[in-house]
Amino acid sequence: MNDSGSGGFEQRLADIVGQANLLTGEAVGEDYAHDECLTVEPAKPRYVAKPATAEETAELLKAAGEHRVPVTARGSGSGLSGAARPRPDGLLISFERMNQVLEVDADNHVAVVQPGVTLAELDEKTAAAGLSYTVYPGELSASVGGNVGTNAGGMRAVKYGVTRHNVLGLQAALPSGELIRTGGKTTKTSTGYDLTQLIIGSEGTLALATEVIVRLHPRLPHGATVLAPFGDLDQVVRAVPKIIASGLDPHILEYIDNLTMAAIVYKEQLSLGVPDEVRDASQAYLVVSLENRDNDRLHADVEILGELLGALGAADVYVLEGPAARKLIEAREKAFWTAKSVGADDVIDVVIPRAEMPAFLAKVRELATASESGAVGCGHAGDGNVHLGIFQKDPAKRRALLHEIFAAGMAAGGSISGEHGIGHAKKEHFLELEDPAKIELMRRIKQSFDPLGILNPGVLFDQESQ
Amino acid sequence: MNDSGSGGFEQRLADIVGQANLLTGEAVGEDYAHDECLTVEPAKPRYVAKPATAEETAELLKAAGEHRVPVTARGSGSGLSGAARPRPDGLLISFERMNQVLEVDADNHVAVVQPGVTLAELDEKTAAAGLSYTVYPGELSASVGGNVGTNAGGMRAVKYGVTRHNVLGLQAALPSGELIRTGGKTTKTSTGYDLTQLIIGSEGTLALATEVIVRLHPRLPHGATVLAPFGDLDQVVRAVPKIIASGLDPHILEYIDNLTMAAIVYKEQLSLGVPDEVRDASQAYLVVSLENRDNDRLHADVEILGELLGALGAADVYVLEGPAARKLIEAREKAFWTAKSVGADDVIDVVIPRAEMPAFLAKVRELATASESGAVGCGHAGDGNVHLGIFQKDPAKRRALLHEIFAAGMAAGGSISGEHGIGHAKKEHFLELEDPAKIELMRRIKQSFDPLGILNPGVLFDQESQ
């Protein structure tokens, strides 16, 4: 950054957002120094600005460009890749004041929201219209802007897709200080390059979303969750393609290995009604949720599902009703926190073709054993998205293990992250393992948006000298 | 292009694809001079090369770059924007020899195909596995590569989405002559910018798909089609959001205005069982198709749908069975050909938020009347994608009318094309009406892929001097 005139820059920021919405020095709280990533060192930013409007956000970017100050965007700080970790010499733009649901449009099945809106707030507003924004990463305090940044997924992606499939349009501030609108309240367009899709998942390196048009789906009134313990993990993951092929269209299809389930049950004090002898003989669990607008059809489908699970090797099938079902799903959502609380040193989320899960998980076990590490977890089985808690205190050994796990995932036709993103945390692996021709192309795309390199430098790519 | 040494270039092309797969001069047939767009002048390319592999395709691009020869890609030539219309001094890469379904992977519900595979061929291959590639633009001779180029849609998009939602990965040749692989057999990834999504819909201006991983859905065995005549067009389009909200999840939801229906019935010699007095009193029709894995549920849903349509103002409801249903859907698919055969001067496909259809169609009628033109049609009502046949012989008047219709669509929150693309045909309107900041950004993205500007110059953007 250009240090001369940083006082002038500070005044400029204050002029844009108002003195009360600019934090510097001691006033910058610890929360702004990190997201929830376990491995990226916190760093307090020099400035925190809280814009109230898209125009203020654009002005902030313009000022940052003129002063060559790096800019990081922050929603709720619940990301797992360190992409919201600011730079010590930088400006953090916190969207906490841009937190309004501007419109719930029931005819077009969309909502228009500001980036700081949390999923909990959006869920409440859409419920009133009988609709739902179906992107549900583990944390309901997550913001929609953060969803866009990381292309968040979550448990319902098996039926409804990830953020990419549920964001139809954006207003976005470019590093130049221009505001653009992309897409709209339509599910399709073939009118030039799809800037919406390019910005989604770019982890704050291309443009900052200042308004998001999200797709809503009818909220189906009837649901049930089935828990099926299996004697072995392979059986669980082998069952997944068959369940997808059944046409029962589950909106949740998760596997949980026995260590993770034990931790979840213990931490959340869950009672699942699974007898001790079944639990002791189980290596893994499948959790399948169905929903329907018709209760009779739901029950008929649960019956079919139960028979199918039995045929696929489940030791038994437990239909969880009401609170017990909700509790299990909530506990699964908190798997990250459970992993953290039992001492995981990292949490990763490789994605592979779902039919590759048995071979991939076998490979992971082999790699973990060889490195004297732990690698246990759960995952969005329907999507082939494997979430692993990594237990290895030694940074060099952990780094080597992660590298091998990521390489194995890519060799299986997958990629490093299904929904957490690369951020700072996995950049080194990304740059080492990804095709250099693609990295080079992505760098040039980055340059086409951000020639001065002010947006989240050091995320995805190494910081270039300015 | 650099004219010196074009003999050397020709030899180079022959070395790459083999003399038998290179056409020049008189050997270049008329078919290569155009796609199905009504308004873009045909032009025979100087060279037609038919690569057999991705590597040959990449080599062709490398050679074209070195010789500064413009390159246009062609699948089946069924596009409607002129994006496959080559340049007289250019190279046309025809994917007709790269027409293999490489794999139908039933566990991961994907197929891996070469770009020249037609939808008819893919449908046959996937049917054997009980699966379906659900992108169905009007023409089953269309190629998957062409789908990718234009982000094709079709009638089933209301349930299954457009090409963008059904292509999970690509192998693509870059203008540099490099081959990259993007995405994979997974429905999600958050690992760098989404190059798959950026290339889809780029109309052959960024990279050429040499292999496509498409998503497949279970092929549901039971289906029914309901035809509902309405006394007025507004009622039809007002009914659409209610049908979507019902949760009946139709896979086809089309409106057809009475002139278009008359032309379709006449051309296809259809007998729909609609009494003369109902037909004479009808201004428009809704066509709704439901599918289910269970026949009883299907019939129950058809009943609910019938009641809903009655409540929404349908004059009557006709359930079409088997051949009659298929015939109507096929006829609707051929609406473009019908429009062409009755003398339409252009066919456009503005997309708007579906709830805006009544106001938009009223505006279109007003604009058409004022310009003494005809504008009739049908459309993917569930998507807000309005297909209009434009009847106006005078090019200046037609141009002015189109400009106003596109502007009205954009003012209603939509865009110029929902699925046909911009190509050469609508470029002028695109450049006039679209936000200059977005055009500039798209130009820079184009440059990041194709610094020499060899890929389909003149499509989307005006040709720049080289």
From TrEMBL, chains A, B:
Keyword Flavoprotein: yes
InterPro entries the UniProt entry points to: FAD-bd_oxidored_4_C, FAD-bd_PCMH, FAD-bd_PCMH-like_sf, FAD-bd_PCMH_sub2, FAD-linked_Oxase-like_C, FAD-linked_OxidoTrans_Type4, Oxid_FAD_bind_N, Vanillyl_alc_oxidase_C-sub2
Cofactor(s) named in the record: FAD
Transmembrane intervals: none
One Gene Ontology MF term: FAD binding
Protein name per UniProt: FAD-binding protein
Organism: Amycolatopsis albispora
Domain FAD-binding PCMH-type: 40-219
Keyword entries, A-Z: FAD, Flavoprotein, Oxidoreductase
SUPFAM superfamilies registered for this protein in UniProt: FAD-binding/transporter-associated domain-like (SSF56176), FAD-linked oxidases, C-terminal domain (SSF55103)
Oxidoreductase among keywords: yes
A Pfam family matched in the record: FAD_binding_4
PANTHER family listed in its UniProt record: GLYCOLATE OXIDASE SUBUNIT GLCD (PTHR42934)
